[in-house]
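Annex B. Sample input.
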Amino acid sequence: MSSSLPEEDLSCPVCCDIFRDPVLLPCSHSFCRSCLQNFWGSSICRSCPVCRRKSSKKTPPINLALKNLCEAFVQSQSWTGEGEENSACPQHGERLKLFCIDDQQPICVVCQASRMHKGHNCAPTDEAALDCKEKLSSTLKTLKNKLDVVNKRKMTSAMTLEHIKSQSQRIEKQIRAQFFKLRQFLMEEEEARVSSLKEEEMKKMLALKERDEELKKETASLTEVIKQTEEEIDAADLMLLKNFKSTIERTQTSSQNPKLFHGSLIDEAKHLSNLKFEVWKKMEGIASYSPVTLDPNTAHPCLKLSEDLTCIHYSSLCNHLPNNPERFCISAEVLGSVPLSSGRHSWEVEVGASEDWILGVASTSIKREEEVPARPENGFWTLCIRDGEYKAMESPPKTLNVEQKLQKVLVQLDWDAGEVSFLCSEDGQTLYIFEHNFTDMVVPYFYTQSKQPLRIMPKPVLISVKDN
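Annex B, continued. Sample output.
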């Protein structure tokens, strides 16, 4: 079969090459399908590249007659020697009209009957080419999707890198600020203790000086009595006897020994005994302890955390944060920083004036890329306030009978016993108890869309010495 049309009549007006998969527009102009799609992709509307007439069809039909003529022309060119090495079977010299689906290669009719391809699934080359194009198009789409994912990962990686830098700088600043406070406290405590020492030194020295003055006076008095007594001894007998009574009284009055000065030395034990321990105990006032701290890497971008990671509130201005796998990206949630897998734990949360919060515990495996109800079947054991009502988030939620507005809520977890309890801090009333056989690690859980803060209350710290 050969084509009687000249080559220019079989050429696409866009690419000027022999038509490949030609399609027909309503205006009777034909183009390669890919050329037309590329042209439409760069245009505002779908129109003919030649006459600019608009086309109402998004997918124009194939021009089968023109397609057959083009294939016949290409085959005739190949048969006459042009590209013969690509269109003829290297073993049999026949034209490659078939495609072996099993071996994924073009073959001739002799190959099909040979032992090598006998019984294999074969298809005409034009049909096989269409199937292969569809598969390649599907594969190409998958590859492009993967490329988009990779590019997004690259953008996330770059954003994460910048966030790590700023995160490190911010944390370093906070560490230095905390240690500055500690050093300031120690310096002030040092100065206070040194001042106390100097004050005691001055008192002791002043007391000794006053005592020295008394001793000087007493020395002078004794010296005078001794002199007078010696004179009386050297006097005539009758004179001595006349003055004996007064002389004896005078010597007896001055014969008392001066008292020892107790406590004249500085009390070293008072200043040095367990000095570091005593200072450590005084640090309770500036070194508060929180039973739970928040994990900023899990916080939704619209949640604002305090520097000590114990307080959160909602803000309509979201932080520019990387979309790391640990972070909640849909709902305004945040988790505690330490997973719990045994023992008893408790923490108190000041809810104050907030009218929108959820508190409790959650499994470490909860979904974070989508919003799910905070209920036990999804790995949550929580208490919430909705429309002014307090509810235990069971399935379905249970409304609780709470007489007065809660200001503080005490959350208690007994992991081994499988209980999560919620109590009113003011009167100790038990609000609700969840029962569950825990097998996974859990973490404290918080949600709020209120600008009123939720605050984790510090626990008192008692420093004592254990008796042996």
